[in-house]
C-alpha cells in the first residue's frame, strides 16, 4: 500500500534514502539499508572474556567470525531479553562485518531529506555524533543512526584504535 | 597489449633462474666442471638476458650479457675456472639480483655498481683470456670451433644465442665500412639468401666466385661481428670469412686481421645499450628470410619452458587461501551433518550413514590435498645456506662443511619465508662463534674442517629444524658472567638449560670481539621472538668442546592447528596441542599457596604456578575447587604452568580463523575456530594467558612481583 507510493516518491526524489527500521524496546531506530548485509536470528554466540558487556561475543556467520553487539545494552534499555523475536542485523561497515542485536525489525522505509530533521545536541548515552538525524513520519519518530560511525567509535571497543 | 603486464612473470622467472644459477655455481666442481652444469648456468644467464632485452631492462641485459660471454668461454674450456672466478660469478649473480629488484621497484639499477661489475668482468676476461683477446683472429677461432663441435642441441641454442650475444664494436671494421665477405662451400640456395641478407645490411659493391669460395664486397655501417651473427643463422661459422678491407679511395685504416669467427672477445662486449640496438634488430629482420634454420633454433628453449610450465602453475596465494577456507567450511558442514546423522537409526538409514562415511573420507582427503598445496620443501630454505656458508667461511678464514638433511621435509609456505631470517642468524652464529679456527680445532684433536648440519624433520604436527655445529660449545661461565654484568638475575646453581636460555635475552653477546658477521648481541632475542610469533619455540643444547645444537620447533602450518578442546563452565576453548605437556587431576597435598593468593602445583618435584582459567577469563559457573578440576601442564616461552580447567573434551584439528578480521585482538586469545556444531570456540594464547595472570597478580602488589621473580630464578 504505502510501499507503492513510497517507491514512487523514491524515484522522483533522488535525495531520499532507504532505511531499515528496527525497534529497541519501544523506541524505533533506522539505519541506512545499504549498510545492511542480512538479518538473522540470535543464536550460538560465544562469549569473549573481558569485553564490555554490550559485546555479546562472536558467532559463526558461514565461516566468518563476526562480533555481536547488543545495542539494547549499549543504549541502557531496561529490558534485555533473548527470545524468538530477537534478531541480529548483520551490517557491513568499514570493511568489517558486525552483528547488532535488536528487539525486532519492522520495515524498510524511504525517507526524503526533508523528512529528516537534525538531531538535537543532547544525548548522554548516544551522542549526537552518531546520529544522522531524526526521521519524522506522521506520529512516529525514527532515530537514524550513523551505524558506521557508531560501530567504529572508540567507545564501542570493536575496532583496535590506531592512535593507542 | 601492455607489456608491463608480463613484468611480474619475468621477475619471478628471472628470480628462479638466478636461484638455479647460484645453486649450480655452488655445486660446481672447479677442477672438473660438469659440462651439463655449465650449460645450465649459461642457459639461465641467457634466458634472463633474453627477457631483460625484451622488456628493455638494458642494464640487466648488459650485465647478463657479459656474464654469459664469460660463462660461454668457461663452457668451451677457454676459461679455466678457479674459486675466485666462481666467486666473481656469484657476485655478479647478486648484482643481477639487485638490478632485478631495482627494476621490480620501478627504479633504475645503481649505475656505479653496474660500472664496477662491468669493470671486474672485463678485467677477468682480459686477464684470463688476455692472450686471446690480443689478437682477434686466432683466439676467436677457438671458441667458435668449439661451438660448432658441440653437440647439436647446444649448437642450436648457440645459434639462437649468438645474434643478441654479439654486440661488439670492432673499431677497425667500423672505420673502414668496407668488408669482404667470403662464403666457403655454401650451397647456391643458401648463398642467395646470404647475399640477399647482406644486401639488407649494406650496399653490395661486388660479388663473384663459385660454390667453394664466393666473395662479396660489402659497404656497410654494420660491424663485422653483427654480420657474422646474422649469417650464422644460415651457415656454420667455419663457412664464413669476413675481412675488413680499406675503402677504395680512403686511407688504409688499421684494419684488423681477418677475423674468421663470430665469437667476440669477452672484453669487447661491454658495449653501451645504444650500440646493441641494431644488433638486436637485425636478427629479428633476418628471421623471416631464414625461417628454415632460425626457427628450430628458437624453438628449442621455448619447448623446454613449456614443459616446465605444464608441471607447475603459478597461482596467487590468496586463491589458495580461499580454497583452504572453503574446504575448512566444508569440513565443518560435514561434521555438522555427521552429528545429525549419528542420531538417526543406522539400520533404517543405512545408505545415508554410508554416504556420510564416504563424505567424511573424501572431505578429509580433500582437506589434506588442499593443505599440501601450501607446503613447500625445506629445500626452499636450505638452498640459500650453501652460499652464506661459503661467503662467511671465506671471510672468517675458517674451513666449514655444510651438511643439509631432510630437504624434502615440507612446511607451510608462509612459514618458510618467515623462518629464513631466524635460521640465517643461527647459522651465522654457529659459523662465527661456534666453529673454531682450523688451527684451534687441530689443537684439540678435531678435524680442521668444521661441520655445520642443517636438518629438518617432521615430529607429529611440528617440524623440527636443527642447526648443529661441532664447535666449541657454549661457555657456561662466560654466559653467566656476562648475564650478571648485564644485570640479569643469575646464580651458579642454574641448570645448563636455563643458562643457555640467557643468550636469548636482549643485548646479549659473549663474543670477545664484535665482528661484522655477528656478535653485536642483537639477534638471538629477535630470533626467539620471531619463532614464537610463528607459534614455535627454540631450544639450545650444548656440550663443551663438542658443539651446539639449536632446535627450532615450528607448527607445520598456521592455517590448521592440532588442538585440545577443554571446558570451563559451559564454555569450550581450544588449547594448542603443541603447548600441552600433560594433564592431571591435582590432589590437595600437591597444591601450595604462596604470598596469599598465588598457588603452586607440585608436579614431580617441580613447582608450577597454578592458573585458573575461569579466573583469567571470568567464566561463570566453573568449578572452583582445584581438586575437582583438571590441571593441564602447559609450556610457553620457556615457562611452564598448570592451567585449571573443568574438563578435557577431546583432541581435534581445527581451522584457525582470525578474530581480528571483524573484531580486535583479545587478551589471552590467539584466534578462533568453528566447532562441529557450528559454534565458535576461542583458541587460547598459552603464553598470553600466563602473562595475563602475572599482570593480574603483580598489578595490585608490587612487593609480590619481586618475590615471584626470585621464585622464577630459583625454580
Secondary structure topology:
The complex is a heterodimer of chains A (164) and B (715).
Chain A: H1 2-12, E1 17-24, E2 27-32, E3 36-41, E4 55-61, E5 64-70, H2 71-74, E6 87-93, E7 96-102, E8 104-111, E9 116-117, E10 131-137, E11 140-145, H3 147-152
Parallel strand pairs in A: 2-11, 5-7
Antiparallel strand pairs in A: 1-2, 1-8, 3-6, 4-5, 6-7, 9-10, 10-11
Chain B: H1 7-27, H2 35-55, H3 58-75, H4 83-104, H5 111-128, H6 130-134, H7 136-149, H8 152-165, H9 171-176, E1 178-184, H10 188-201, E2 203-209, E3 213-219, H11 224-231, E4 240-244, H12 273-289, H13 291-311, H14 317-342, H15 350-374, E5 375-377, H16 379-382, H17 385-396, E6 400-405, E7 410-412, H18 413-434, H19 438-443, E8 450-459, E9 462-469, H20 476-485, H21 496-502, H22 524-533, E10 537-543, E11 547-555, E12 560-568, E13 571-576, E14 580-584, E15 591-594, E16 598-603, E17 606-612, H23 613-616, E18 630-636, E19 639-645, E20 647-655, E21 669-674, E22 680-684, H24 686-698, H25 702-714
Parallel strand pairs in B: 6-8, 13-22, 17-19
Antiparallel strand pairs in B: 1-3, 1-4, 2-3, 5-7, 8-9, 9-11, 10-11, 12-13, 12-20, 14-18, 15-16, 16-17, 18-19, 21-22
Task: Describe the structure in your own words.
The complex is a heterodimer of chains A (164) and B (715). Chain A is mainly beta and 164 residues long. Chain A contains three helices and eleven strands. In chain A, the strands form two sheets. Chain A has a six-stranded mixed beta sheet with strand order 8-1-2-11-10-9. In chain A, strands 3-6-7-5-4 form a five-stranded mixed beta sheet. Chain A is globular. Chain B folds into five domains: 1-128, Four Helix Bundle (Hemerythrin (Met), subunit A) (Up-down Bundle); 166-312, 2-Layer Sandwich (Alpha-Beta Plaits), CATH 3.30.70; 317-376; 378-555, Heat Shock Protein 90 (2-Layer Sandwich), CATH 3.30.565; 560-714, CheA-289, Domain 4 (OB fold (Dihydrolipoamide Acetyltransferase, E2P), Beta Barrel), CATH 2.40.50. Helices cover 49% and strands 20% of the residues of chain B. Chain B contains 25 helices and 22 strands. In chain B, a hairpin with a 3-residue loop joins strand 10 (537-543) and strand 11. The model of chain B is unreliable at 131-174, 250-309, 516-521 and 701-715 (pLDDT under 50). Classes of the chains: A mainly beta (164), B alpha+beta (715). The A-B interface holds A 44-51, 57-60, 62-67, 96-98, 157-160 and B 325, 328-329, 332, 571, 616-619, 657-669, 672, 674, 678-682.
Amino acid at each position: 500500500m504505502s510501499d507503492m507510493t513510497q517507491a514512487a516518491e523514491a524515484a522522483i526524489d533522488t535525495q531520499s534514502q532507504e532505511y531499515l527500521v528496527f525497534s529497541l524496546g519501544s523506541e524505533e531506530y533506522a539505519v541506512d539499508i545499504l549498510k545492511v548485509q542480512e538479518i538473522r536470528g540470535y543464536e550460538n554466540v560465544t562469549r569473549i572474556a573481558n569485553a564490555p558487556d554490550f559485546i555479546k561475543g562472536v558467532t559463526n556467520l558461514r565461516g566468518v567470525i563476526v562480533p555481536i553487539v547488543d545495542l539494547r545494552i549499549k543504549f541502557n534499555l531496561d529490558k534485555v531479553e533473548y527470545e524468538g523475536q530477537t534478531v541480529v542485523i548483520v551490517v557491513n561497515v568499514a570493511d568489517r562485518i558486525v552483528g547488532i542485536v535488536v528487539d525486532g525489525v519492522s520495515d524498510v522505509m524511504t525517507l526524503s531529506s526533508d523528512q529528516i530533521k537534525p538531531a538535537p545536541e543532547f544525548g548522554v548515552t548516544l551522542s549526537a555524533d552518531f546520529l544522522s538525524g531524526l526521521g519524522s513520519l506522521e506520529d512516529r519518530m525514527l532515530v537514524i543512526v550513523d551505524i558506521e560511525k557508531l560501530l567504529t567509535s572508540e567507545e564501542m571497543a570493536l575496532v583496535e584504535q590506531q592512535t593507542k | 597489449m601492455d607489456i608491463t603486464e608480463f613484468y611480474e612473470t619475468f621477475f619471478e622467472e628471472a628470480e628462479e633462474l638466478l636461484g638455479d644459477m647460484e645453486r649450480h655455481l655452488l655445486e660446481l666442481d672447479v677442477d672438473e666442471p660438469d659440462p651439463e652444469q655449465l650449460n645450465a648456468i649459461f642457459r639461465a644467464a641467457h634466458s634472463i638476458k633474453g627477457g631483460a632485452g625484451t622488456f628493455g631492462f638494458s642494464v640487466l641485459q648488459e650485465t647478463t650479457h657479459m656474464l654469459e660471454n664469460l660463462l660461454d668461454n668457461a663452457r668451451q674450456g677457454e676459461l679455466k675456472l678457479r674459486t675466485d672466478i666462481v666467486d666473481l660469478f656469484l657476485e655478479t649473480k647478486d648484482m643481477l639480483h639487485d638490478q632485478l629488484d631495482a627494476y621490480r621497484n620501478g627504479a633504475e639499477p645503481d649505475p656505479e655498481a653496474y660500472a664496477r661489475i662491468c669493470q671486474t668482468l672485463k678485467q677477468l676476461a682480459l686477464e684470463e683470456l688476455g692472450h686471446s683477446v690480443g689478437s682477434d683472429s686466432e683466439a676467436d677461432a677457438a671458441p667458435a670451433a668449439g661451438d660448432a663441435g658441440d653437440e647439436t642441441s647446444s649448437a642450436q641454442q648457440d645459434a639462437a644465442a649468438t645474434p643478441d650475444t654479439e654486440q661488439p664494436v670492432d673499431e677497425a671494421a667500423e672505420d673502414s665500412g668496407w668488408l669482404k665477405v667470403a662464403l666457403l662451400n655454401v650451397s647456391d640456395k643458401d648463398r642467395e639468401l646470404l647475399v640477399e641478407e647482406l644486401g639488407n645490411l649494406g650496399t653490395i659493391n661486388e660479388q663473384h666466385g663459385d660454390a667453394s669460395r664466393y666473395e662479396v664486397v660489402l659497404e656497410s655501417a654494420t660491424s663485422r661481428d653483427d654480420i657474422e651473427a646474422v649469417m650464422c643463422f644460415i651457415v656454420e661459422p667455419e663457412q664464413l670469412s669476413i675481412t675488413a678491407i680499406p675503402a677504395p679511395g680512403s686511407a688504409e685504416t688499421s684494419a684488423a686481421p681477418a677475423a674468421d669467427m663470430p665469437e667476440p672477445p669477452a672484453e669487447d662486449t661491454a658495449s653501451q645499450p645504444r650500440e646493441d640496438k641494431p644488433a638486436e634488430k637485425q636478427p629479428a629482420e633476418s628471421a623471416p628470410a631464414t625461417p628454415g634454420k632460425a626457427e628450430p633454433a628458437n624453438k628449442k628453449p621455448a619447448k623446454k619452458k613449456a614443459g616446465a610450465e605444464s608441471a607447475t602453475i603459478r597461482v596467487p596465494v590468496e586463491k589458495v587461501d580461499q580454497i583452504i577456507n572453503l574446504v575448512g567450511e566444508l569440513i565443518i558442514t560435514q561434521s555438522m551433518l555427521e552429528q545429525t546423522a549419528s542420531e538417526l537409526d543406522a539400520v533404517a538409514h543405512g545408505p545415508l550413514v554410508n554416504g556420510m562415511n564416504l563424505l567424511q573420507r573424501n572431505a578429509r582427503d580433500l582437506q589434506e590435498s588442499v593443505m599440501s598445496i601450501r607446503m613447500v620443501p625445506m629445500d626452499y630454505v636450505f638452498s640459500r645456506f650453501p652460499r652464506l656458508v661459503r661467503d662467511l667461511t671465506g671471510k672468517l678464514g675458517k674451513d666449514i662443511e655444510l651438511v643439509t638433511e631432510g630437504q624434502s621435509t615440507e612446511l607451510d609456505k608462509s612459514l618458510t619465508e618467515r623462518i629464513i631470517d631466524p635460521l640465517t642468524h643461527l647459522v651465522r652464529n654457529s659459523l662465527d662463534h661456534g666453529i673454531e679456527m682450523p688451527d684451534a680445532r687441530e689443537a684439540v684433536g678435531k678435524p680442521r674442517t668444521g661441520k655445520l648440519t642443517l636438518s629438518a624433520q617432521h615430529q607429529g604436527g611440528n617440524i623440527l629444524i636443527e642447526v648443529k655445529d661441532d664447535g666449541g660449545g657454549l661457555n657456561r661461565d662466560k654466559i653467566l658472567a656476562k648475564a650478571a654484568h648485564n644485570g640479569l638475575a643469575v646464580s651458579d646453581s642454574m641448570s645448563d638449560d636455563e643458562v643457555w636460555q640467557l643468550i636469548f635475552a636482549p643485548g646479549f653477546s659473549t663474543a670477545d670481539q664484535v665482528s661484522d658477521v655477528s656478535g653485536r648481541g642483537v639477534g638471538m632475542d629477535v630470533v626467539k621472538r620471531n619463532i614464537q610469533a610463528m607459534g614455535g619455540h627454540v631450544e639450545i643444547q650444548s656440550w663443551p668442546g663438542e658443539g651446539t645444537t639449536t632446535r627450532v620447533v615450528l607448527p607445520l602450518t598456521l592455517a590448521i592447528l592440532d588442538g585440545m578442546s577443554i571446558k570451563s563452565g559451559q564454555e569450550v576453548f581450544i588449547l594448542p596441542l603443541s603447548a600441552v605437556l600433560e594433564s592431571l587431576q591435582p590432589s590437595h597435598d600437591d597444591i601450595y599457596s604462596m604470598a596469599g593468593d598465588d598457588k603452586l602445583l607440585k608436579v614431580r618435584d617441580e613447582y608450577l604456578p597454578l592458573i585458573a582459567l575461569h579466573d583469567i577469563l571470568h567464566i561463570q559457573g566453573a568449578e572452583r575447587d582445584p581438586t575437582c578440576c583438571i590441571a593441564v601442564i602447559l609450556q610457553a616461552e620457556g615457562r611452564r604452568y598448570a592451567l585449571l580447567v573443568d574438563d578435557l573434551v577431546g583432541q581435534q584439528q581445527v581451522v584457525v580463523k582470525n578474530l581480528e578480521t571483524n573484531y580486535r585482538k583479545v587478551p589471552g586469545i590467539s584466534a578462533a575456530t568453528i566447532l562441529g556444531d557450528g559454534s565458535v570456540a576461542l583458541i587460547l594464547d598459552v603464553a598470553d594467558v600466563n602473562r595475563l595472570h602475572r599482570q593480574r597478580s603483580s598489578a595490585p602488589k608490587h612487593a609480590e612481583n619481586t618475590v615471584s621473580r626470585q621464585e622464577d630464578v630459583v625454580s
